[in-house]
Amino acid sequence: MTELEELSVTINELNNIWPLLEGDERNNVLDERDKLDELASELAHKTINQGEPALIIAIDSLKEAIQIATDVKTSINDLSARTEKVAKMVKKVSKAAGKVSKLVALL
Amino acid sequence: MKRNIVTIMASLLISACASTPTGQIEAFGVAAADVTAKIDIVITDYNRTNIDNKLARMAQRNKKYTKSDFDPIRKILIRDADKKSFALYQANNALGAYAISLSELAAAGSREQMTRASIKLNQSLKSMNKNYKIIKGTSDDLLNAEKNAEISRVVAEVSSFYAENKRAKALKKIIINSDSQIQAIGKIINEQLLKSALESRIYTMRGTVLAGYFADYNKTTDKKSFAVRKKSLDFMYRQYIEMQATGATILQAQNAITSIMHAHSVLKSELEKDQYTSKKIFKSIGEIITVHKSYDDLEELMVNCETEVITDDKKGIICKD
Question: What is the ipTM, given to two decimal places?
Answer without folding.
Answer: 0.73
